[in-house]
Design goal:
With 248 residues, the protein is an alpha/beta fold. Helix content is 50%, strand content 12%.
């Protein structure tokens, strides 16, 4: 959809992590986009050969290591954004400032899936920076990593009238390595999703205010993930019995 047009705009999502790709696709579909997901650069090029150019292509920065992807998509005006730093923050701000009606910018403020090691490193990083209040709040979150606010602050400053849609999912975060994936087969736990809209009139301005607001949102998501885990634990025995009866 563009500038009041009834046609849905198409977005190509290139991401090798299945859960992240599915989450981004779902978020875009809910925002009245037609999202198409592929897992790698080769599949993206094949898709582009068979379809008209989409309104936007979202992909991870590491795909720029593929020369064909780099040359082709850079010519098309696509943006490769790395995992942090001033350059990445400036790129986010530029993208946010160029948004038109019905456009969407997808950010992952936490930067990755939760693992015990990543949480410990995130808390330690906050303490090294002297952000002790944020570090204490991060320690309280046992399902999600603490948000890194720089990209969100930059985006909101560049697009102050934009609404914010908060999106979360849970169900497969226990699959942290090949051993845990193998032990969980066949996969029977459903993927649960949560999203809500924060109108621009309720979104704060200022780095400190936005940071506190982000941490409040992430605490809400953390609590929701915990609730879903409790429900899954209650229903798991019944699911296991059904599986045993079906295969026994």
């Amino acid at each position: 959809m563009s500038d009041g047009s009834p046609m849905r705009r198409r977005v190509l999502v290139v991401e090798d992590d299945d859960d992240i790709r599915a989450s981004v696709e779902q978020c875009l579909e809910d925002g009245d986009f037609d999202a198409f997901g592929v897992a790698n650069g080769e599949a993206a090029l094949a898709w582009l050969e068979e379809h008209d150019l989409p309104a936007l292509i979202v992909l991870t920065e590491r795909l720029r290591l593929d020369p064909s992807i780099d040359v082709l998509l850079s010519r098309l005006g696509c943006r490769f954004i790395g995992p942090g730093g001033a350059v990445a923050t400036a790129a986010v701000a530029e993208l946010a400032g160029s948004l038109r009606a019905h456009d969407a910018l997808v950010l992952f403020p936490e930067g990755g899936d939760w693992t015990p090691t990543r949480q410990r490193l995130a808390v330690a990083r906050l303490r090294r920076k002297g952000l002790h209040v944020q570090a204490e709040r991060a320690e309280q979150m046992v399902h999600v990593l603490p948000p890194r606010p720089a990209g969100t602050v930059a985006a909101l400053a560049a697009a102050p009238t934009a609404d914010v849609v908060v999106f979360g999912h849970t169900g497969h975060e226990h699959l942290q390595d090949l051993q845990s994936i193998w032990a969980a087969l066949p996969l029977r736990r459903e993927l649960a999703v949560l999203w809500w809209r924060e109108p621009s009139t309720g979104v704060p301005s200022g780095e400190q205010e936005i940071t506190e607001w982000l941490f409040d949102l992430w605490h809400r998501i953390d609590s929701w993930v915990g609730e879903q885990g409790d429900l899954a634990e209650v229903s798991a025995p019944a699911a296991d019995r059904m599986h045993h009866e079906a295969t026994g």
